[in-house]
Amino acid sequence: MKSKFLNLAIILILLVPFVYANTNLEVDIPQEYSSIHSGTKIVFTTKLLSLQDLGRRDVTLKYEIINDKNVVVLTKSETVAVQTQASFVGNIQIPENLESGIYSLKITLISDSEQNPETIASFSIVKEKTQDNTKNYIYIGIIALTIIIILLLILKSKIWIKHIKLKMKIKRIVKQKLYSNK
Amino acid sequence: MGSVLITTSVENLGNGINSVVQTFGDVYGIYISLNKTQSAILKTLEKSKISSKKIFFIDCVSSSQDKNSVVIKPSDTNEILLAIKSFVKEIPSRKYILIDSLATLMIYNDINKVANFVRTLTQFASQKGVEVVALTQKAEGEKLFDKIFNFFDKVEKK
């Protein structure tokens, strides 16, 4: 499935210069965003080159996230001001419910002209490693148990000290009385 | 002599105590007082011309500690037992234990705790060859009496 999509991507990349001869649209996904978790943002750079036909005006960029089954799972549009060329940093919030897998970011330049240049880049969504809370619970349990034991020892030692003091007091009282009765 | 449980009326309690102390004479006594303070008992004995110089007190009535007296809360039966054991250990010669009165312990402790206290005390005293005289009021002590009379060698009604 992965290789199938890769082949399609290669074909599209090769075809782009022939189909959209006058305007080039490129997208670049930085390395650190090539593999992301669902619920996070994907950041990318969109480059518009050789915009002679369009001139100085606003253009609309349509962003689509497409899964490996070729289904569009997310669409977003953005209007940007351009001149001869432009470069934009964009971002899209990836929904949390998206399954892990290979996805494509397709960007289409929507304009009044017949040409609507497109570009595609792929990235992957990986499942976030769920925190292993078991170890944390064990640590908390050990710490709580240690605190309880220390408190019990302190309490016991207080009682023990109290008893020692009582015994010593009684010893002294008896000694005094025995001595005074001689 | 072993251990004796004396049941008496409230009016005769004082006389009962005087009688016990007089009977033992020159023998060292460990007096656990649950009704009167140590100083009140000393005055009573002095009034009756009974010597108190051989009596050690465990005062369960006074609220403040004194360096020459042992003051213990009546609810702390474990500490009372500890004090009795310490006195028994420190007094070299023949001695006796006098408790005035067992029924008063029930104000501060439940009946089972008092019964357990009496059982432990009589067993300890028996092992050490120490005589025990315990006084209790007739009316207040009836329920308790049924639970504890078996622990004593002898029961007297006055």
Outline the fold blueprint:
The complex is a heterodimer of chains A (182) and B (158).
Chain A: H1 2-19, E1 24-28, E2 35-37, E3 41-49, E4 57-66, E5 72-82, E6 86-93, E7 101-110, E8 118-126, H2 133-180
Parallel strand pairs in A: 2-8
Antiparallel strand pairs in A: 1-3, 3-6, 4-5, 4-7, 7-8
Chain B: E1 3-8, H1 13-24, E2 28-33, H2 38-47, E3 55-59, E4 70-71, H3 77-90, E5 95-100, H4 102-108, H5 111-128, E6 131-137, H6 142-148, E7 154-157
Parallel strand pairs in B: 1-6, 1-7, 2-3, 2-5, 3-4, 5-6
Q: Can you tell me about this structure?
A:
The complex is a heterodimer of chains A (182) and B (158). Chain A has two helices and eight strands, in the order αββββββββα. Chain A has helices at residues 2-19, 133-180, and strands at 24-28, 35-37, 41-49, 57-66, 72-82, 86-93, 101-110, 118-126. Chain A is rod-shaped. The model of chain A is unreliable at 15-21 (pLDDT under 50). Helix content of chain B is 43%, strand content 23%. Chain B is built from six helices and seven strands; from the N terminus they run βαβαββαβααβαβ. Chain B has helices spanning 13-24, 38-47, 77-90, 102-108, 111-128, 142-148, and strands at residues 3-8, 28-33, 55-59, 70-71, 95-100, 131-137, 154-157. Chain B has a seven-stranded parallel beta sheet, with helices on both faces. Classes of the chains: A alpha+beta (182), B alpha/beta (158). The A-B interface holds A 163, 166-167, 169-171, 173-178, 180-181 and B 53-54, 56, 67-70, 79, 82-83, 86-87, 90-92.
Q: In a few lines, what is going on in this structure?
A:
The complex is a heterodimer of chains A (182) and B (158). Chain A is α+β, with helices and mostly antiparallel strands and 182 residues long.
